[in-house]
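Record format v2
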Amino acid sequence: MNVSREDARRSLDEAEAVAERTRKSIAASHTGGLLMMWGVICTAGYLGTYYFLEWVWHIWFMLSGAGCIVTFWVGWRQLRLANPIKVPAAERIGWRIFLFWLLLYVYMFIWLGIVKPRHGIQINAFMVTAIMFAYIVTGLWFKSHHMFWLGIIVTGITLTGFYLIPWNYYCFWMAAMVGGAFLITGLYIRLRWRWCDSAHHK
Amino acid sequence: MSSLAALDAGEQVDFVYLRKILNLTDGNLGAHLVKLEEADYVKIEKTFIARKPRTFINVTGRGRDAFNEHIATLKRIISDAEK
């Protein structure tokens, strides 16, 4: 069978376009929305911390508690019911990931009890970098570039805020930069998918 | 096959979702998949989730190899023609 260069090029382009559309469509799922939600939670939490410092534990407990419940519910739904992509291996290790995150929080409080940081900013920088460490590990585990790079970037932002930004501006820095990083990543995942979808239906 | 090969190893895709991505009809996609299953390029699993029937498809190792070979051949044709 003779295949011309043009036919081969057309077939290759079509194959690459379909493969890219599939990957982007999978990436869109609910990940973008969840990251945007955490972006809003971070921004609200840091601004709340700045303006209502005496309520700081209540604010973060309520905001992150609500965020965890929504994330867990969406994750469970995706894994069990609505997700168009089934990963039997991920279903098998799903509970281990859940346990890993649960243990991370337990250990964070153990370490905080041992180290006894003197300033709220130290506690915050410790917790954010520990959570971002879990993002990086989870990203490597599931080959998720978004989670991996978000973990690296937010760690960098936190360390910059901790070492270089005056302490009275720390909350504003974190509200804008950490909240912004989550929002932009979530938005990027969503918009990239929509752009791809509209190009496909033209 | 492009769509299935884009999945990571071990991932299975829902039939309805695949039909939507590829913009095909039920019958058209079903006919393609039957041929691919006969060649042992894909594996089809019918299951029930929340009491609803769902069909998941994944590419086999043989299918992935064949697809990669096909892509390599297309690239070779293009590069040979450019020489």
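The CA atoms of residues 23 and 29 of chain B lie 9 Å apart.
The interface with chain A takes residues 1-3, 5-8, 10-14, 16-18, 21-23, 49-50, 56, 71, 74-75, 77-78, 81-82 of chain B (CB under 8 Å).
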